[in-house]
Design goal:
Strand order of the largest sheet: 2-1-3
Largest sheet: 3 strands, antiparallel
Oligomer: single chain
Shape: extended
Number of strands: 5
Strand content: 5-15%
Radius of gyration: 22 Å
């Protein structure tokens, strides 16, 4: 028979582990203009609570051509070379491909999925948003899984 002490220790360990995943991240700027991030804002500052996502992210989009033409000639040559080649590295393609396939697998399992709303709350994913997400992930697979 499992002792009460072991069960209590396991319950405390689980509570501690879940509290780490709920930790907030704050962003603030000090009096010297330096931006800081931390788990607790300093007193008397106007720190902003940051939303932390555990989902995949896409690399930043390339600068629009018109914007790069306004820069110096060296930047023009670099931008022209960048426009001709793939903006994603092989590692980024592989990562985006893997994440899209994992999302599709999760969506295909059926069942209720919860999604995080803009205000921080969560809601059950509707069929419409599930279908939209599946279409987006299929496009990601077509683009990144070669």
């Amino acid at each position: 028979m499992i002792s009460t002490r072991i069960l209590t220790s396991a319950a405390i360990l689980l509570m501690l582990m879940s509290s780490f995943s709920l930790a907030a991240i704050y962003k603030w700027t000090d009096e010297h203009g330096q931006v800081h991030y931390g788990s607790a804002p300093p007193s008397g500052s106007s720190a902003k609570r940051m939303g932390v996502s555990t989902h995949y992210s896409t690399p930043p989009a390339a600068k629009p051509k018109a914007e790069t033409q306004a820069s110096g000639s060296k930047e023009k040559k670099t931008a022209a070379a960048t426009d001709k080649k793939d903006p994603y590295s092989k590692q980024q393609h592989d990562s985006l491909c893997k994440n899209a396939r994992n999302d599709i697998a999760t969506l295909d399992k059926g069942g209720r999925l919860r999604v995080k709303q803009a205000d921080g709350s969560s809601a059950v994913m509707t069929d419409e948003s599930r279908n939209k997400r599946q279409k987006t992930m299929q496009e990601m697979i077509s683009k990144h899984c070669k």
